[in-house]
Design goal:
The protein is of the alpha+beta class and 301 residues long. It contains 7 helices and 11 strands. The strands form 2 sheets. Strands 3, 4, 5, 6, 7 and 8 form a 6-stranded mixed β-sheet that branches. The protein has a 5-stranded mixed β-sheet with strand order 1-11-10-2-9, with no helix packed on it.
Length: 301
Amino acid sequence: MSEIKKYMDIVRLGHKSTENVLNVGDHITITEKIDGANSSFVLNEVGGVDCFSHKQKVTPDNTLRGFYEWVHNNIKPETLNPKYRYYGEWLVSHKIQYRPECYQQFYMFNVYDDEKEEYLPDSVMRSEAERLRIKTVPLFYEGDYISFEHLMSFVGKTVMGINRGEGVVVKNVDYRDKYGHQLFVKLVDADFCEVQKEKKPKDPHKPITIEQTFVNQCLTKARVSKMLHNFVDEGIIPVDFNLENMRTILQNIGSRLFDDIMKEEKDYLPDGYDEKLIKAAIGKKTPSIVKEIIQENEIAA
């Protein structure tokens, strides 16, 4: 149990892989999408508690901005179910503003059963959270799936945020794809969307390639900002990163942006695209977006 198990990717509703995830009458939950650091903890083989970020084990030397201390101050090993992995969001400052009292807290959003090899219903998650005295992500709705319009009525709402919420996560835990895998989906408010409409080129006599159009749509400030906050969580750059950190940022960000974009948005691409041109377009556009984010942060500070 002490090895890391990354939480599943939450896929944008409308991606081709989500076609049959939601059908009228399916039992679903709609919860607020929290903008923090994905994290988890489990009971290990020697009776202690191991905790993880999305990508690595959290240690006294790499605490995920205080998550390690929180786990060891609040979670008693004897209370944990040895079959379960407890997933949630460790709320630290990212792009969404929350009420001050909400930060430095863990909000559980799922429990994974290692024996059954599946994510359990939210009712089990909430029961475990109550037993362990842990907060959960805000629940907006539980019941039968009604319509897409019904889902959209919750997008932008927030229980914890100061202004608008980032979006919602919708779970149908009974759904399985053709490989037998579960799949949960997300709907994101337009203000935080990681895909934008392509603007017309300034010079119509200089056509833009399909690869450049794709990158222009998908390499948004929201996506780059998300990646920079992940770097902060992982200890790659400091919380108050600035232009002095540009070299480190650019050394790490290109391949991860490419992987993230292709994972989430590949269905926007027509046949016959060239991956090398996509990577080149990402490399060309990324520095200016990073600089813009840094300058905005400096002004806000």
